[in-house]
Specification:
Radius of gyration: 21 Å
Structural class: mainly alpha
Helix content: over 70%
Order of helices and strands: HHHHHHHHHHHHHHHHHHHH
Number of helices: 20
Number of strands: 0
Mean pLDDT: 96
Strand content: under 5%
Largest sheet: none
């Protein structure tokens, strides 16, 4: 069953054998029909792509992803391989690369751990252990430090409280105010505890109350009172509590704004949200910025890579 906000939905007349044959044909002989490959794969759900890969192996004794890798290249290859990866495994591989690469890609840790649901985080932790034989939380702890590490570890527990605790709204807002704006220096632990453990709907009420007490949006205070990785993580948690699609719309905008494109972020969001909330992200994007996601991708990318991104975007918002 497709999610309401998905731009990529299961294909109704799905036939795994027919699709496997079409992909084989697109890669057989001289030259590759990239257009046939991208048109087909962006019009199938991830579950359907897994069935195509299994059928392909049965028919031809070959691994579909390996064949795609040998035929394609560059960013186009990266996005197609991303689409062929089951969603939880995709997140796991991204986290592993972020931790094990040269230096830590904190941006990836922040994006995935701040935006995924509790159920997804539990699945990510289990799959990470299965794939890599080690504990994600340990790897994150070994690769980060200080308050930043503490909040990541809290998010890894995936144990946010449920619902709104009406009796705590004023108190939480007051604690945040006294931990930051009101004192000299900042008590980061208080921010971490409240932002890491309360439910999104509870936090939205706390943010409203915080604005009344302090005269500031919580984001303004975090930006003033904290810095570096911790600041970026706290802001991501706040933005996701307010609206996950708005958080991704902003991330996509800044991945393309200005000189150069952050293709890794652009690919990761377009692949991982296409079957979740891409339509909501597009709507938020149009509301927040003076352009549409479609036209920004169109102006910022090229070739088969651009065609694939635009198909995942699923349309324009004028």
């Amino acid at each position: 069953m497709a999610t309401k906000g998905a731009s990529v939905k299961p294909f109704a007349q799905f036939d795994a054998k027919q699709d496997a044959e079409a992909l084989y044909g697109a890669m057989k002989g001289l030259g590759t029909d990239e257009d046939a490959i991208l048109q087909l794969l962006t019009a199938r759900s991830n579950t359907q792509r897994q069935q195509i890969a299994a059928t392909y192996k049965n028919l031809y004794g070959k691994d579909l992803v390996d064949n795609l890798k040998s035929e394609l290249g560059g960013k186009f290859e990266t996005i197609i391989v991303g689409l062929m990866t089951p969603p939880v495994l995709y997140d796991v591989n991204e986290l592993r690369a972020a931790i094990k690469g040269a230096g830590t890609d904190e941006h990836v840790l922040i994006e995935i751990l701040a935006s995924r649901t509790a159920k997804q985080i539990k699945e990510i932790a289990a799959t990470y252990k299965k794939e890599y034989g080690c504990v994600l939380e340990d790897d994150i702890e070994g690769d980060t430090s200080g308050h930043f590490k503490r909040l990541l570890v809290i998010l890894m527990q995936a144990s946010r409280e449920e619902g709104i605790n009406a009796g705590c709204i004023d108190e939480d807002a007051q604690v945040l105010f006294e931990a930051g704006e009101k004192k000299y220096g900042t008590d980061e632990d208080k921010f971490i505890t409240i932002l890491g453990n309360r439910s999104a709907e509870h936090l939205r009420k706390v943010f409203d109350q915080y604005m009344k007490i302090s005269g500031y949006e919580i984001e303004e205070s975090i930006t003033r009172e904290t810095s570096g990785s911790l600041k970026n993580l706290l802001l991501a948690v706040v933005k996701c509590a307010r609206s996950v699609p708005a958080y991704f719309a902003e991330s996509l905008y800044y991945s393309m704004k200005g000189a150069g494109t952050d293709d890794k972020t652009l690919i990761r969001i377009m692949v991982s949200r296409s079957e979740v909330d891409m339509l909501d992200i597009r709507a938020q994007f149009r509301r927040m910025f003076a352009t549409s996601l479609h036209s920004m991708i169109n102006n910022d990318t090229s070739g088969d890579y651009r065609k694939t991104l635009l198909l995942l975007c699923g349309g324009d918002d004028h």
